[in-house]
Recover the amino acids of this structure.
């Protein structure tokens, strides 16, 4: 009988590919609630899970990418590409500047990590983090300074599993009377992450994000 290596590389837990799908599905549910069913809060509760997972995967992507500049370029390019679909879906306008899509937040998160990795003492690094948080607020990015703070938490505590999960849960719960408290449940799939990439999904999310917003915009116009 021939020897089989099938399953020899299998690890318990879930891969980054599977994590991305959890984040994508919960994001779509969240956006369906916000755009199509604004009075049905269950959609929004489920949707709070998506951003913490995307933020966690951002940090993993930062440490595994072969070219940080290409990584930032992709995030920046799709931040610009996604802005019109985002504004149409959420504001009904081709362009408006009171709130920018999540790719801007993710781009700034990578920029923050890149600057911190360049070195320097912690008083200087603290200023750098605060400057990126301020920039997120000035640009009105999705989640604003809070999104950058979560990226910093996952970045700084990357090798401290339980502390990272605890602080990640606290980040979701700390905003008083906020829907984001339900995002603490995101720590469950993140805790199950086994460090494996799984199937490749390099460009799917980049394309899917603006595409699904356009689809939801068309549906909202059709039904409303």
């Amino acid at each position: 009988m021939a020897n089989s290596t099938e399953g020899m590389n299998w690890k318990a837990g879930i891969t980054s590919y599977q994590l991305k799908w959890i984040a994508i599905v919960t994001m779509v549910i969240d956006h369906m609630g916000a755009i199509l069913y604004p009075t049905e809060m269950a959609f929004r509760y489920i949707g709070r899970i998506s951003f913490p997972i995307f933020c966690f995967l951002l940090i993993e992507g930062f440490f595994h990418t072969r070219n940080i500049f290409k990584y930032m370029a992709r995030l920046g390019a799709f931040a610009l590409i996604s802005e019109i679909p985002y504004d149409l879906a959420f504001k009904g306008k081709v362009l408006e500047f009171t709130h920018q899509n999540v790719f801007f937040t993710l781009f700034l998160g990578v920029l923050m990590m890149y600057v911190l990795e360049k070195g320097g003492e912690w008083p200087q690094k603290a200023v750098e983090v605060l400057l990126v948080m301020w920039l997120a607020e000035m640009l009105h990015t999705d989640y604003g300074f809070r999104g950058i703070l979560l990226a910093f938490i996952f970045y700084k505590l990357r090798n401290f599993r339980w502390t990272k999960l605890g602080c990640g849960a606290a980040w979701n719960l700390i905003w008083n009377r906020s829907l984001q408290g339900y995002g603490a449940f995101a720590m469950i799939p993140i805790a199950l992450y086994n460090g494996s990439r799984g199937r490749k999904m390099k460009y799917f999310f980049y394309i899917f994000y603006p595409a699904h917003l356009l689809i939801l915009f068309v549906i909202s116009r059709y039904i409303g």
Notes: The chain is about 65% helix and 0% strand. Residues 16-217 form one domain.
